[in-house]
Amino acid sequence: MVKSEVAVHSRKVASDIQESIKRLIIDGRLPSGAPLPTEAELMELMASAGTRCARR
Fold first, then answer.
1. Between the CA atoms of 39, 17, 27 and 34, what dihedral angle is there, to the nearest 10 degrees?
2. Are 51 and 18 in contact (CB under 8 A)?
3. Distance between CA atoms of 41 and 49, rounded to whole angstroms?
4. For residue range 13-42, what is the model confidence (pLDDT) as tens digits?
5. What pTM did the predictor assign?
6. Fewer Cβ within 10 Å of end Cβ, the chain: N or C?
7. What pLDDT band is residue 4 in, cutting at 50, 70 and 90?
8. Do 25 and 33 form a contact (C-beta atoms < 8 A)?
9. Residue environment code for 34-49, b if the CB has 16+ CB neighbours within 10 A, otherwise e
10. Burial of 22 (0-12, 13-18, 19+ CB in 10 A)
11. Residue 45 host element (H or E)
């Protein structure tokens, strides 16, 4: 991957994670105003919500 492709991929991943967190709040799995869970807890929540999240 060239540098510009990496930047685009990174923005896409960040956007996907942001949307997943929004969905967790909307679905009531992450209370609005609550502190964000740890990375491991978020991965667990996203996996149980059917969201794919892979650590690179």
1. 50
2. no
3. 12
4. 888 888 988 888 899 888 888 898 888 988
5. 0.61
6. C
7. confident
8. no
9. eeeeeeeebeebbeee
10. exposed
11. helix 39-48
